[in-house]
Design brief:
Elements (H helix, E strand, L loop, with lengths): L9 H7 L1 H17 L20 H27 L5 H10 L7 H25 L3 H23 L1 H17 L2 H7 L11 H15 L1 H13 L7 H35 L7 H21 L7 H6 L1 H10 L1
Helix pairs in contact: 1-3, 1-10, 2-3, 3-4, 3-5, 4-5, 4-6, 5-6, 9-10, 9-11, 9-14, 10-11, 11-12, 11-14
């Protein structure tokens, strides 16, 4: 009925932006490989060894790395929190996003602020009897401009930029460097950390940590259009393990079916469940290997068998 509308959580809005992050990451990689000459990927920015004829591509790459994703996050957050404002909040968010250079977290925060300000600015204009055209100009254009100037003047984006940069440094540091940062023995080379982290990733995916912790960190890593270390961990510990379990299910089904034919048995035990598992496993193999998704296909097998569950953790 007419219940209270529940606003989405900020992390859910962040996760919604994943397609844009993947698109920017792939496009930046293509540009660097085929349109840039002698670009040193290890130095900050784009490097200086870029041919003159590709100067326009340098500008495009800069826009993708520093402005595209913060703007996407800002607009998606604004429309998610104020969908009733339609194109007005979208225009305001686009203008405000100009001040979100280099920070997707800043884009999310500014998008939320835009949604809050637009609704209240519109209400104020109506209360004051401002004409409709002027109201649209003030709300759609003025609100975004004021917010953009505000974030620039206060330096909030610099703080947000430092936060995401710190997260990337921690996540992408070597085990020895991470140990030193945590005050542990510098002689520890990180042995066993990968095993523990793989098991943690596997466990976290089953208890709801993926969309709460893992995916937001992956997106923060991709803030500059770069691939994600945790994204690679996701692929190795979840996607490929799920595909392996599904493949094993298909092989078991094939073996049982062949054995039934050899012995003259018409159907394998529990044919309905077997057929359902086979269909799920076949779909799981295809989607996991081709699309890098649908790790849930392995969960029924892991829940039914402690051995499968154990080896899934070991594989992770």
């Amino acid at each position: 009925g007419g219940g209270v509308k529940v606003k989405p959580q900020l992390k859910s809005v962040f996760d919604t932006c994943l397609p844009a992050f993947l698109a920017v990451c792939v496009f930046c990689r293509v540009v660097k490989y085929y349109l840039l000459v002698d670009c040193d990927e290890h130095e900050e920015g784009l490097g200086s060894k870029i041919s003159d004829e590709n100067e326009s591509w340098k500008t495009l790459l800069t826009m993708l790395q520093w402005y595209a994703l913060p703007m996407v996050c800002c607009v998606v957050a604004a429309i998610s929190y104020a969908p009733e404002q339609g194109s007005t909040v979208i225009m305001s968010a686009c203008i405000a996003a100009v001040g979100c250079r280099g920070s997707v977290l800043g884009g999310l925060a500014v998008g939320w602020l835009v949604s809050w300000m637009v609704s209240r600015s519109l209400f104020a204009c109506i209360r004051l009897g401002v004409p409709a055209t002027m109201t649209n100009i003030l709300v759609a254009g003025g609100t975004g401009s004021i917010i953009s100037l505000f974030v620039q003047a206060t330096g909030i984006m610099s703080v947000m930029h430092k936060v995401t940069q710190t997260i990337r440094v921690i996540v992408q540091s070597s085990p020895a460097a991470a140990a030193a940062a945590l005050g542990l023995s510098p002689r520890w080379d990180g042995s066993g950390l990968g095993f523990a982290f793989g098991c943690l990733f596997c466990y976290g995916s089953k208890v709801g940590w993926y969309h709460t912790i893992f995916l937001p960190v992956i997106l923060v890593e991709m803030e500059r259009g770069e691939p994600s270390v945790w994204g690679a961990v996701d692929e190795c510990t979840l996607v490929l393990v799920s595909a392996g379990i599904c493949t094993a299910n298909l092989l078991v089904h094939h073996t049982i079916t062949k054995e039934c034919r050899t012995t003259g048995t018409k159907t394998p035990p529990q044919p309905s469940r077997t057929n359902a598992d086979t269909a799920l496993s076949r779909r799981g193999v295809l989607i996991n290997l081709l699309c890098g998704d649908f790790i849930e296909a392995a969960y029924p097998s892991m829940e039914r068998s402690a051995i499968v569950n154990l080896f899934a953790y070991l594989a992770s």
